[in-house]
Amino acid sequence: MENTSMLREWFERVDSEKTGNITAIQLKSALAVGNLEFPLSVVQQMIRMYDFDRNGTMSFDEFVGLNKFLLKVQQAFSDLERGLGYLVPDDVYKGLVKIGFSLDSPSFYTVCEESF
């Protein structure tokens, strides 16, 4: 979702207490509305990454920042997937580098080998 007014509506829908901030559980619900399913532990990590005021929740502006990042990730991997429905480790590595991660190539491939 790129449109700010749509994001605001999306955010306000899950900010049930109208505090201007959402919890990890509320963020998980908001992401699910956009067909983005993540384990709660991953959503909690997203909040830690984008919780710039360090209050343990996510404000609308922080939510917008997270949304921009998720769109960037989605686009990077969509460009690499080539209609196959999956990514090989080389594609994952390229995608992560494309969105700005600095990775040690041998370590990355070691983790991939151990995971599969």
UniProtKB/TrEMBL annotation:
Any single Gene Ontology cellular-component annotation: cytoplasm
InterPro entries: EF-hand-dom_pair (IPR011992), EF_Hand_1_Ca_BS (IPR018247), EF_hand_dom (IPR002048), Peflin/Sorcin_CaBP (IPR051426)
Keyword Cytoplasm: yes
Annotated Gene3D superfamilies: EF-hand
Principal place of residence: cytoplasm
Domain EF-hand: 2-37, 38-73
GO molecular function: calcium ion binding; calcium-dependent protein binding
SUPFAM superfamilies: EF-hand
Keyword presence, Cytoplasm: yes
Superkingdom, natural source: Eukaryota
Keywords: Calcium, Cytoplasm, Metal-binding, Repeat
Compartment(s): Cytoplasm
PANTHER family on file: GH27120P (PTHR46212:SF3), PEFLIN (PTHR46212)
The protein's name in its UniProt record: EF-hand domain-containing protein
